[in-house]
Amino acid sequence: KTGHTRVFSVHRLRLHILLAVICAALFGMRTSAHPMGNFAICHYAKLSVNTNRVDIVYVLDFAEIPSIEELRILDSNHDGKIDSAEEAAYVKTRGQQFVNKLQLKSNRSQLQVTLKSCRIIPSLGAGGLQTLRIEMLLQADCAIQAETNFTYLD
């Protein structure tokens, strides 16, 4: 009887492991918000050159861990909710800090990049933690000539 119970336990253990692997495969994909990891801050920039300016769509996508600190800054009264006054203050200060780190040059001359609008999108990430996505529309005025070279640094 002891050998029979032991065989039954091994089969039961294998079944539990198989079910755990299946659950992780099925449900783990849904909670994986950032393929680069929970510590990532992904940057995206799309530059569109017009006749008298450069428009930039600039996106910062904060994974779960960096979102914790960023949400502390955003939620200045620490009530767990983001109100319009907190969002406006965040955009004015922190949004401008992000913009100031960008460099855009036209024919080696530094262009002034200005923040036109900003949208803050919190969402639920892995493990029930918040993630944060910041979408900014930026603009730099410049005179476009036939031979205009741009340099962009983030």
Describe this structure in words.
With 154 residues, the chain is an alpha+beta fold. The protein has helices spanning 2-31, 64-74, 84-100; strands at residues 41-49, 53-62, 103-106, 109-110, 113-124, 130-141, 150-153. It has a 4-stranded antiparallel sheet with strand order 1-2-6-5, with helices on one face. Strands 4-3-7 form a 3-stranded antiparallel sheet, with no helix packed on it. Residues 1-8 and 29-33 have low confidence and may be disordered.
Q: What is the topology?
A:
Layout: H1 2-31, E1 41-49, E2 53-62, H2 64-74, H3 84-100, E3 103-106, E4 109-110, E5 113-124, E6 130-141, E7 150-153
Antiparallel strand pairs: 1-2, 2-6, 3-4, 3-7, 5-6
Sum this structure up briefly:
This protein is of the alpha+beta class and 154 residues long. The chain is built from three helices and seven strands, in the order αββααβββββ.
What does the radius of gyration come to?
24 Å
Mind describing the biggest β-sheet?
4 strands, antiparallel
Q: Low-confidence parts, pLDDT < 50 over ≥5 residues?
A: 1-8, 29-33
**SS content category:** alpha+beta
Task: Give the overall shape, derived from the CA principal axes.
Answer: flat
**Strand order, sheet with most strands:** 1-2-6-5
Quote the average pLDDT: 83
Task: Estimate the strand proportion.
Answer: 25-35%
Q: How many DSSP-defined strands?
A: 7
Fraction in helix: 25-40%
- First-residue to last-residue Cα separation: 69 Å
Number of helices: 3
